[in-house]
Amino acid sequence: MKAKIYITRTIPEHAVRKLAEACEVDMWPEADIPVPREVLEEKIRDADGLYCMLTDAIDSRLLAGAPRLKVVSTMAVGFNNIDIEEASRRRIMVANTPGVLTETTADLTFALLMAAARRIVEASDFLRAGGWSAWSPMQLTGQDVYGATLGIIGMGRIGEALARRAKGFDMRVLYHNRSRKREAEQSMAIEYAEQDDLLAHSDFVCVMAPLTPDTRNLIGARELNLMKPSAILINSARGGIVDERALYDALASGTIWAAGLDVFEEEPVKLDHPLLTLSNVVTLPHIGSASIRTRTRMAEIAADSLLQGLSGELPAHLVN
Ligand code: DGY
């Protein structure tokens, strides 16, 4: 009998085909709308495998209603939406898609940094709104990227890829991480710093850590107060790591200069969110890994992991 799998979003066709060759596939028929919780609860009841997105809450209650579930494969590197402890307790394998999105996400993070520093979105809006009456000496002036100091909080694969880009702009790179990255320090001439020192000395602070109980609200009012008034905060990791209320206050009062955000505490962010009222914030709808090639590969890798787990092998990117 073929294993039954449920896919929580409409994914690229070749990944579906691959899964359908070995399994009985059921898929939520929408690409842009997440599967409603009640549908997921019903579908997971007799599923052997689940192919999910970062928008699905795979919590203990859901897992309790999935007696046959053997593998959860998420089309993402981050897995803060999955109760890993509970999955492990139930001997359910959880797999993610690391590696493949590293460079693409580092590209986007650097783009966000550049956009916030040089006011790219604001300048474009200004032109389209008819504000450009003449070239003007100090109009839309921003912060220099070249030669500035970049502080990276969370030095995993994407952090290292970001550091490589920064070196191309002749930036000094400080990083803070749970463990020292001595090889990267040597090969890229980057420097380890305590978090408070990094915040105080960086022109740009990029949050690149995973969201865990330890990193929730890692950047709050105290941390923002340590930053330079000319500094820019970039978050392309997870929304809950930065306290959005404190960030709004810091941006509105001039405690820091600007921010670039690809992620929010609640996604999609509400259109009346205070951060969206500020012109010194560049906001994006969680598109860090969104290149055609990378998302296509992520879809395939998540399918491969699901098939590996269902056939009794260990998935290539097992989380637990
Ligand atoms: C991930 O994979 O966790 C990213 O946030 C998706 O862009």
UniProtKB/TrEMBL annotation:
**Matches recorded under Pfam families:** 2-Hacid_dh (PF00389), 2-Hacid_dh_C (PF02826)
**Alphabetical list of Gene3D superfamilies matching this protein:** NAD(P)-binding Rossmann-like Domain
Q: Which residues form the D-isomer specific 2-hydroxyacid dehydrogenase NAD-binding domain?
A: 110-288
Identify the GO cellular component terms for this protein. cytosol
- Spell out the molecular function terms from Gene Ontology: glyoxylate reductase (NADPH) activity; hydroxypyruvate reductase [NAD(P)H] activity; NAD binding
Transmembrane residue ranges: none
CDD domains for this protein: GDH
Tell me which UniProt keywords the record has, alphabetically: Oxidoreductase
Please report the stretch or stretches of sequence annotated as the D-isomer specific 2-hydroxyacid dehydrogenase catalytic domain: 6-320
By sequence similarity, the record places it as follows:
Belongs to the D-isomer specific 2-hydroxyacid dehydrogenase family.
Q: What is this protein called?
A: D-glycerate dehydrogenase
Q: Which organism is it from?
A: Paenibacillus arenilitoris
